[in-house]
Amino acid sequence: MLVSAKEMLNKAREGKYAVGQFNINNLEWTKAILLTAQENNSPVILGVSEGAGKYMCGYKTVVGMVKGMLEELNITVPVALHLDHGSFEGAKKCIEAGFSSVMFDGSHYPIEENIAKTKELVATCNNLGLSLEAEVGSIGGEEDGVIGAGECADPDECKQIADLGVTMLAAGIGNIHGKYPENWAGLSFETLEAVKAKVGDMPLVLHGGTGIPEDMIKKAISLGVAKINVNTECQLSFQAATRKYIEEGKDQQGKGFDPRKLLAPGFEAIKATVKEKMELFGSINKA
Ligand code: 13P
């Protein structure tokens, strides 16, 4: 059964660890992440961007696939199915399709509009027992064609959004999606501390988990981050393992062309990356 992310994140915040959100792209991704969570007795959040949702034929297909896997793989750890960086319309569609959690990213709107739209979704999500993530201060880098500048959130605006009753809050602290550039200034812990001081017990979300040094991840968790999103790193591990398989000519040996063989090294590589992140985030045996 899919669950809201509320309880797992509140437990994580109290226990000073973080739950990973791993973005999914297809069946292999989803299966790899769910099995790794189960093997490590860890709660997990499956992230679906609007682009990935479209790629997988739409949100209803995603819900069907994930629910089927929970049952047929005997997954008993808490799993939330979460829309990542949703538009207002996208959030409504996911709620209708059966997601257990949504993010409404109104960070590119003026704060009044972000508040108004977030408020409407708070009411809907509360009625249905779903968790809702809001965002203040856009995350840098590029995701699905949306390019953010990597702002640092205004702590007062964070408080305004947190007070609406959202479940968790993504505040920009200089983090960006994708690989970090050589000259990246690092996370702004000053901003994180100021946001935390304003929003109190609200679990905070760190986007752009790929490539953030371990010490920064640990410090962010100690300052109230309870959910960390990882996407690009699984894509890179999948790519490297698949490239190796083909470069070694394995696709040309015997039945190596069978997609179940061709995609197996990438699948295993995603599992290894997810496990490594769960260890770093401290969520192992916290299911
Ligand atoms: P990365 O692709 O940098 O890991 O970021 C993932 C993310 O924040 C999804 O919202």
Written overview of the protein:
By secondary structure, the protein is α/β, with parallel strands linked by helices. The chain has a single domain (6-235, 268-281), classed as Aldolase class I (TIM Barrel, Alpha-Beta Barrel). 48% of the residues lie in helices and 17% in strands. It has 12 helices and 10 strands. The protein has helices spanning 6-15, 27-39, 50-55, 59-72, 88-97, 111-128, 155-162, 189-199, 214-222, 232-247, 259-262, 264-281; strands at residues 19-23, 44-49, 79-86, 101-104, 131-136, 141-143, 146-148, 168-171, 204-206, 225-230. The strands form 2 sheets. An 8-stranded parallel beta barrel has the order 1-2-3-4-5-8-9-10, surrounded by 9 helices. A two-stranded antiparallel sheet has the order 6-7. Helix 2 (27-39) crosses helix 12, helix 5 (88-97) packs parallel to helix 6 and helix 7 packs parallel to helix 8 (189-199). The chain is globular, with a radius of gyration of 18 Å. 1,3-dihydroxyacetonephosphate (13P) binds next to strand 3, strand 10 and helix 10.
